[in-house]
Amino acid sequence: MSWVPSVQDSSIGRLFARVCEPFLEPFRRIIPPIGGVIDLSPIIAFLILKLATRGIFYLGYLFG
Question: What are the annotated GO cellular component locations (predicted)?
C-alpha cells in the first residue's frame, strides 16, 4: 500500500496493514526502499511465500 498512500488511511488499509505487517516487517529490515520511496519488500515477500508454498506441496507429494 506504500504505492497508493491514500489507501493507507482507510479502514481497509488499516486492516491490511494489521494482517500483512508482521510478515513484511522482516523483509523491510533487509531490503531498503529504492530511493527512499519505492518499497519492493512486498514483491520479494510474495516470491518467498510462493516458493515456500511450492516446497510444502512438493514435500506433501513426495511423502503423501
Answer: membrane
The alpha carbon of 49 is separated from its chain's Cα centroid by a whole number of angstroms, namely 8
Of the candidates 40, 22, 21, the residue with the CA atom closest to the CA atom of residue 31: 40
Position 36 pLDDT exceeds 90: no
| 31 contacts 40 by C-beta, under 8 angstroms | yes
**Residue 54 or 38, more confident:** 54
Integer angstrom CA distances of residue 43 from 11, 27, 38, 46, 63: 23, 10, 11, 5, 30
